[in-house]
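Collaboration report, partner site 2.

Our partner group contributed sequences for two proteins of shared interest, and the home lab folded both. The records are reproduced in the order in which they were received, starting with the first partner submission.
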Amino acid sequence: MLAKQTGLTRNQVSNWFINARVRLWKPMVEEIHNLEMRQVHKHSPHDKGQQNGVHGQAHQHS
């Protein structure tokens, strides 16, 4: 249906959605993850000198 309405091939429409996932969704998901990690670190006890995150595992940032 989108292919007919836009004049694109089905493959082009499919590629648009694949690219949109990387271009739009991935940065949004990463930002949400980063905000959650900041909240976890903000509420974690610092008096024990722990640098570990949730469940005692060190966080790796990409």
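Second partner submission, folded after the first:
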Amino acid sequence: MREYKLVVLGAGGVGKSALTVQFVQSIFVEKYDPTIEDSYRKQVEVDSQQCMLEILDTAGTEQFTAMRDLYMKNGQGFILVYSITSQATFNDLNELRDQIMRVKDADKVPMVLSGNKCDLEDDRVSRRRWKTNVDEVFFDLVRQINKQMPEKPERKKKKCLIL
């Protein structure tokens, strides 16, 4: 089974943990509890293939930005989360994207943009309470990784026969 290292990034309070916990445990997180770093694993089926997702839910606050380069170096795909109620959180993603591209030193890196808090549409400035497209955010990222880095076929071990 292929394993995928996914990293969830975005400003503080945009709902990175709510998105991740909703996907992994199907629980909506009501209360905001700032994250330093949480790691989750979930086995899923994407396009008829079993996959093990290792999801890193990162801190959104400025005091933990020094850890970002390490997250970015180790991650295979990235979910960039912003709140549709805050234009500033959307604008912040340009800097995150540029940092990912610099750290990965690549022209293309698998990324998905996720607008969170869609249940607060009237505040407008996608919340995951409704679980609107939550699975698709993660599945689409797996598909992007598969396109960019196809799985290498397992090498058959050669057997030695001594007579």
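Feedback sent to the partner group on the second submission included the following. The helical segments are 16-25, 68-74, 87-104, 134-148. The chain has a mean pLDDT of 82.
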